[in-house]
Amino acid sequence: MKAIIYIIERDFKRFFRYRWWLVGLISMNLADLFIMALVYTKMVRSEILASYFRFFSPGITITALFAAAFMIGREVNWEVRRDYASYLLSLPIKRWELAFGRVLSGGLRGMVYMAPLLLTTFVFLGSPTIFQLFIILSALFLIAIGTSSLSISIAASITSFEKFVTARGVVYYLLFFCSTVFYPINLMEQLKEQGVLPPFMVDLARNNPLSCGADLIRSFLLNSPEFTPYLIINLVAYAFIFVVLGALTYVKMLQRTR
Amino acid sequence: MAPIIQTINLTKKFGDFVAVDHLNLSIEEGEIFGLLGPNGAGKTTTLMMITTVIKPTEGTAIVGGHDVRSEPDKARNLIGIAFQEPKLLWVDKVIDVLNWHAKICGLSKSERKVRVKWALEEIDLWDARNKTIHSLSGGMRKRVEVAKLLIQRPKIAIIDEPTAQIDVVGKHRIWNMIRALRDEGSTIILATNELNEADVLSDRIAIMHRGKLLVCDTPKNLKDSIPGGDIVEVKLEKELPEKTLRAVKELDEVVNLVKVKPNHIRFHLNRSETVTPKIMEIFWRNNAPVLSIRISEPSLDDVFLHYTGLTIEEAERLTPRAKKP
Q1: Checking DSSP bridges between strand B79-82 and strand B156-160, what pairing results, if any?
Q2: Which residues fall within 8 angstroms of residue B92, CB to CB, at 6 or more apart?
Q3: Cβ contact (<8 Å) for A6 and B48?
Q4: What is the interface pTM, i.e. ipTM, of the complex?
Q5: Is residue B148 domain-shared with residue B243, that is, in the same domain?
Q6: Domains of chain A: which residue ranges?
Q7: How confident is the model at residue B241 (pLDDT cuts 50, 70, 90)?
Q8: Do both B161 and B241 map to the same domain?
Q9: Using a CB-CB distance cutoff of 8 angstroms, which residues of chain B are in contact with residue A87?
Q10: Which helix (H) or strand (E) segment is A51 a member of?
Q11: Is B28 helix (H, G, I), strand (E, B) or coil?
Q12: Nearest-by-Cβ selection for A10 from B52, B100, B154
């Protein structure tokens, strides 16, 4: 267990080495909320959304969490390309400790990065109860570790940085835009019926873990959409599948690419 | 006593390319074992399999009684490795690299403090401890890589090309570190393509070429294994009588004899240190006073040439390489 803590410590140090860059990124996320979302509030018809700002606040929290947790993949990909991974594989620790250490550190870094945005959401949308807070944090943690695992499995499987960046872009766009992070599912349903959006996009949005995370926060703080156990089940499945897949892929691919 | 490392038909293939081909080695506890061969001979791949970084395609290695295939975690616990290319993050500080390595290798806080300071002083980088890896020279980075082993003090220390591209002073510093590590109780496996390095440091040397083991013995026995490898040149006051020459030729260790000049003879010998006194005695008995003697031993390059028909440079040029997967 100590080895996992040391791996997390190392990855955290690496992440916070460029703290002013992180401050810049968080500021951009806050600008999305306080400039873009406020302007959109005036642009969007009130029968669709009463306040785009209040709708988007949980959304930006989730996208920030996703983006920060995904950053571990860039480091893993660098380690594979520069053969630094050989050093990690040669250390006197167990393979599962190495794999879960990386998954956890990626996830926890995402949680820390997201914290200011979650706090902002609570300030403007209202505080959850202790129980709701526990559920929200647990759900966010599941998204974080699922995402860091997804990122690690992609990064370890691809030895070219260019291909990794392309794969990352595809995952980002697919999961961000086919979700309820930026727009409500009702609107997407309407657009599907009008033939504007393809059906698969709406189905993906409904089952997308990012949608589930954002909707879970909204269900507690905005009472809409309604809370359903599916939101939790979806996130547990996402985390479970990708943590197992990510950890296995990480070790297998590192050994294969030597 | 059982060897601390034993490879049994250890084989690694990358597609159709055989990087290591049914390698059988036995390494004894406490020795400095040199793995010598040109680039592409399969040395690093062998080390990567022993350290469990890559899996063998066929065969296995037993490390401290643990099979690298079935008990890789236990085998890895006994091993530390200094890589050919230092595996360091350029933005890290020297002290942070070593501290973290000490932590992950299980050293307590107090042990860490003492050993990291000691190692930094040993590698002469104490003053540069707060510099980033990026700002260090190639030689300094190499020393940081070896310092990881000094801190870890593993039962088996593997050092891959420790002095490649290092200046003479740096080389001797690293050699001293390797000897210090052995004196601390580690068994050392030293992979190198530098003949002199292997000769100076190793108790035994295994020569590899194209993934195969050619020969394994002490440096002295390897040199002695070349028939007539020792060359002794003798200059005499006057021409040597045929009778005396015949008496010398009859000695078992004399492989060949060349008359460079009437009073200048070149002998190709086996075990020159034992046969030269016998030759001198024959000269003395036959009243042939000696003016000068020059003895030259074969080098490991000669050994390599003897077993492969190629110099190490030629072998390096002609060795096929695996395509990177």
Answers
A1: parallel
A2: B132, B133
A3: no
A4: 0.87
A5: no
A6: 2-256
A7: confident
A8: no
A9: 83, 87
A10: none
A11: coil
A12: B100
